Structures are given as C-alpha cells and as structure tokens.
Amino acid sequence: MAAKRSSFWDWLLIGLACSATIALLLLIHTCALQPFSVPATSMEPSLLRGDYFFVNKSAYGYSRYSLPFSPHLFSGRIFAAPPRRGDIAVFRATRDERVDYVKRVVGLPGDRIQLKDGVLHVNGVAARRERLVDYDYARDARSVRVKHWRETLPDGASYEILDQEMPTTQEFRVPPESYFVLGDNRDNSFDSRFRDFGYVPTENLVGRVVLIFYSIGPGSQPHDGRIGLRPR
C-alpha cells in the first residue's frame, strides 16, 4: 500500500499539538508540581539519597524562583502562604541562589530557636523526643549506626531524625520574612545553624515536598516501598 503524503494542514495540526503539550508541561512545571532529587544524606531518614520527589510549587505562592531560570521579573511572592513548622521545603539559600536545597522548616518569623544537648527548643519550649531503633546509613563508603529519634514540635508536627552528637547552639531569633531550617540528619547537615548558610528568605522558597515518585539505591537498585510515600 502506498504511503499518503502529509499535507501542510497535517503538519500544522501536529505542530500545534506539540506546542500545546509543551506549554501545558511548562505550566505544570512552573505553577503546580516540579520534580527534584536528593543527592546527599542530610535529610535521612525522611528523604534518602536517590529519592526523586515532587514539590508543590503553589503551597507557598510564587516568587521568581518558581520560574525557569529565575528571571528578575518581580520581587516578593504572589498568592503568598506561609510554611508550617515541620514542612519539608525546597528553597534557594542566600549563599548560592543557583542551587536548590531541601530541609525541614522548624522556625517561623519571630521564633526563638535553640538546640540544647541536641533537643530542639522553639520559643523556650522543648520538642518531645522518643528514642527509636538505631539507624544504619552509608557514609564515606561505610555503614554508620546512629541514634534514631521521633521528634515532635510543640505545635504537634512529628517526624524522625538522626542525632548522635547532640550539641548545644546559641539561641537564634528568626528575622521577619525569614525561616529557620534544619536537616533531619542533624550531624550531617549544613543548615541555618551555620552563619555561612543562615536563614531562608520568604522569597527564596520554591515549594513543599509532597510525594516520592521514584527511588534508587546503591548499585542502581530501586529502594523498596518508597514510591508513593508522602514524606513527613
């Protein structure tokens, strides 16, 4: 059977369909869900190295960091909504606004934050800690066994953390329009405790982590049971 030659109108329809598809994907990427991955261990056990997850970009409203290439089209946030304590958020740190980071929000504007012997205090109130079974994770090509806890903030947000060294820090007062973030792997996270990292400005928030859609472990083997998890 002879092949039928496509007409100009056929190619036009194909081009319009492709353009519409690209525009729809770009709209979803910009306004709704954006995929990210975890290259490090600073958020274990909540997020593992090799997790791929979606971020809800509408959760906190939109800033220039919601747009591809972060153009300087406007400042501040549109349809702004504040994070809640305990949210896992993706953001741009002021130290390097080209890089996306993922950490847990523990301090809101005006909060006083301090760790005393490893216990997180929010406005003078200690978070509850419950000891869990020790946790093994890979660090520097070897397995490390560390203390594993369930931490519950004074307002009820609850999640798991790793903390072996249990240090004491200064008290931090979170500035207006800023947030204090920590990694769940407290001994191996560069976060708001460090001067070179600092607080996260409202404008730098990208969105809230909502769903793990894929996870690959050592040796390129998928992590069992992680697809579809909603990190807490």
Brief characterization of the structure:
The chain is mainly beta. It has one helix at 8-31, and strands at 33-37, 51-56, 88-92, 100-107, 112-116, 119-122, 125-126, 128-139, 142-152, 158-162, 172-173, 178-182, 200-201, 205-215.
Q: Secondary structure elements and their pairing?
A:
Elements: H1 8-31, E1 33-37, E2 51-56, E3 88-92, E4 100-107, E5 112-116, E6 119-122, E7 125-126, E8 128-139, E9 142-152, E10 158-162, E11 172-173, E12 178-182, E13 200-201, E14 205-215
Antiparallel strand pairs: 1-2, 2-14, 3-4, 3-14, 4-12, 5-6, 5-11, 6-7, 8-9, 9-10, 12-13
Could you characterize the architecture of this molecule?
The protein has one helix and 14 strands. It is mainly beta and 232 residues long. The chain has a single domain (35-220), classed as Umud Fragment, subunit A. The strands form three sheets. A seven-stranded antiparallel β-sheet has the order 1-2-14-3-4-12-13. Strands 7-6-5-11 form a four-stranded antiparallel β-sheet, with no helix packed on it. It has a three-stranded antiparallel β-sheet with strand order 8-9-10, with no helix packed on it. The protein is globular, with a radius of gyration of 21 Å.
